[in-house]
Design a protein that fits this description.
three-stranded antiparallel sheet, metal ion binding, 6 helices, cytoplasm, zinc, 3 strands, Inhibitor Of Apoptosis Protein (2mihbC-IAP-1), Chain A, mainly alpha, globular, nucleus, metal-binding
Length: about 120
């Protein structure tokens, strides 16, 4: 789980929106996003926690609002404090929920489904 805002910010080196925008790399990282561009979509961002991908960003888009609109139950958005202020129990509860999300994401991934259908080993 990339709960480090600094690490998330580093992933926005090729982000197309910079100054005079609502969705600067700094605000995107603060809102929980990592930059995960594709060849066809250079401005795709994914929440490190809920794994929701958002594309089609415009300079006036607010990262917090867009995140809340598309993923209102994201535990990262619902936190009322930063990671460094969490108790050990709160942190492990978040970590447990994140692992549940990750496993669900992997299970429904097309590559995993294809491997399960044709009997290939997942490596």
């Amino acid at each position: 789980m990339s709960n480090s805002e600094v690490i998330r910010l580093q992933m926005f080196s090729e982000w197309p929106f910079r100054e005079d925008c609502q969705c600067t790399p700094e605000l995107m990282a603060k809102a929980g996003f990592v930059h995960c561009p594709s060849e066809n979509e250079p401005e795709v961002a994914c929440c490190f926690y809920c794994l929701r991908e958002l594309e089609g960003w415009e300079p006036e888009d607010n990262p917090w609002s867009e995140h809340a609109k598309c993923s209102p139950n994201c535990a990262f958005l619902c936190m009322k404090k930063t990671f460094d202020k969490l108790t050990a129990i709160e942190y492990f509860q978040l970590e447990q929920e994140w692992l549940r999300i990750l496993v669900s994401y992997i299970i429904v991934s097309p590559a995993v489904q294809s491997s399960l259908r044709d009997g290939s080993r997942l490596v």
